[in-house]
Write a structure and sequence with these properties.
Ferritin; 0% strand; 5 helices; Ferritin-like; globular; mainly alpha
Length: 186
Amino acid sequence: MPNFEQLFESASTILQSLTDNKKDPLHVGEAMACWTCLAFVNNIITYEEIGLNTTTDPGVKELYQDGFKIANSHKKQLTKLMQEEGVTLPASPESKPNSDPSTVPVGTKFTDNELANTININFVVAANMCAAAASQCLRTDVGLMFIKFQAEKLSLGYKAKELMQQKGWLIVPPYYQPPGTPHPKK
C-alpha cells in the first residue's frame, strides 16, 4: 500500500517553500469548507465511537481506531485554524461512553460487515469533500491541509478495501458491458 502521508509531506514541503500566503484572511469559500469539514468530522467521530463500542472483529476495530485517530487529528487542526481566523465552530455531538461490545444486544447494533462498508463510505465522501475544498483554496496552507486530509482518508480507504476483500464484504457495482460487446459465458 502506498504511503500517502510520506508522499504528501514531501510535496507539501516543496509547495510551502514556493509560496506562503498565510497573512491573507480566509475567503468565504475557505471558511465554509473548514466549517463544513469540521461539522462532518465531529459527527463521524461519534459514529466511530459507536463502531468501536459494538465491533468484536479485530480488523474492523483496527480500522475504526485508525479512523478515530485521524478524525481527531483533523478536528484538532481545523479547530485551531478556525479559532485563529475567527471562524465560528459548528456544534459538536457529545462523546459516547465506552461500552463492552458483547453486552450490546444483537439487532440493535450494526454487523461488522455493515460497519466496514459504512466507514469506507465515510472515507470516500471525506476524500471527495477534501478534494473539493482544496480546489477552492487560495491560501496555500489551507489547500495543503485539505490535500493532507484527503491523502489520509484515501490511505484508510485502501486499508478498508483490503479488509473488506479478505472478509468477502466488499460491495462491487455491476460490471459495465458496452452495448454490442460479446458477454462472457458464465
